[in-house]
Amino acid sequence: MRSWLERFDRVLTRGQLLGGVKRLLVAVSGGPDSMALLHLFLQWQRAFGKTGKLEILAGHVHHGIRGEEADRDAAFVAQEAQVLGVKLLRGAVKVRTEARRRKLSLESAARELRYEVLGQWACEHEIHAVAVAHHLDDQAETVILRAARGTGLRGLAGMPVARPLSDGARVRLIRPLLKWRRSELVTFLHEIGGSCLVDSTNQDPTIPRNLVRHTIIPLLESGAHPGAVEALARLAEHARRASEDLALLGMRALREALVSEDNGSCVLSVEKLRIWPRSVLHEVLKLVVAKLHGPHLGFRVSREVQQWILSEPTILESSCNLGRCLDSSSFLGLELRYGFLRAERIPGSSPVPLPGTELELPVPGSTEWGGWEIRAVETSKAETLPLDVGTIRERVDAALVQSRGRLTVRSRRLGERFRPLGAPGAMKLKEFFREARVRPVARDRVPVVDSGGEIVWVVGHRIADGFRVTERTDRVLVLDATRKHEGGG
Description:
CATH class of the largest domain: Alpha Beta
CATH topology of the largest domain: Rossmann fold
Strand content: 15-25%
Shape: globular
Number of strands: 22
Largest sheet: 6 strands, mixed
Number of helices: 16
Low-confidence stretches: 485-489
Strand order of the largest sheet: 3-2-1-4-6-5
Radius of gyration: 26 Å
CATH architecture of the largest domain: 3-Layer(aba) Sandwich
Structural class: alpha+beta
Number of domains: 3
Helix content: 25-40%
């Protein structure tokens, strides 16, 4: 027993996972992983004299998607918490309802809702850290799934041991078991006589993670690659270290190349940048974007900017003295001029309206939304209207649009789907933004023209295929969008 707790203590101490934490919430589903984590924390607390210095709570979220089995889990966790003398926070969410509303899979909706509840509890109960039971096998599965999607170096790093519970949150999410195998946790529970339950959905082969867990990894382990789980976890660790090293080199390169900076721009020496490889230059660009946007650290470097700066040979290595690249989705402008690279925040990046805000778009008429002016006017199919410089225009079938309901401008809705013009079928708006290389933090700033709850136009990108102008179209609705240039960002 002591060896288990000493190992757990080394993880907590070396990783400084509980620094400044006085109240900890352990997320408990009732399964072997989370029950082992709860027991480890409680026994570690007693063995290492932490009783009274750290308050440990348990939290259980009832997802309501497994009927009586889910009720059984909730009752089991409540009983175990009472026996162990742990305060239990309980919550229930309607995963099926929210999955339909957000247009997510049950697994994705359950994960989103679970973290939302954990965040709510953290605020209500002044919790400083939330512990979850992800382990070494989970890490290996994550690396495989991300690699299959074509992730970069940072994605190959898998799940971090600690991170903010949500963007900008002070509450930490910690994973003390990332070095432990699933089988070890089961053994630990057996040795201490602990109880647990098994979630039947973990056997569902239609869930990608289960396919990796029950098919791909066993094939690797039993075939030519025994020890594949540990190897994949080592790969994640190597990727994390390489990613961190690149970030440090990027900071050094930026520091050496920086000539001047002010509130909305910075100037870099091309000569100083040329000595660095493209991987480091990419880090420099990310740091520049973060510097110009202040707290908006979620902005990423767009594909357009990457191609302009980092294509082979890079523009920094060429004899070109003049050039300019604008990326409106991240509000970034780059200008190459006689040995200097100037990066500036594009004026007009005004705050987006509060989530859920919908502004009516009259026809004919206009509305202003998040630094954009959106205009609508109905014309005949043959009529051509003058187009101002800097204006984005789309034409849609007026009758189809008006048959759905009133026209509004809003931000995206979580989980919604639409069929982009020319696409073979509908897709999640989140996936569309990902393919269009729109950074997550910038997605709420993209106006969406809506009619009766259906997306008509993702401004600056594409209209919905179902509203396109066809041979049967009689009247056309012309939609114009112009980014306003007053104000700062």
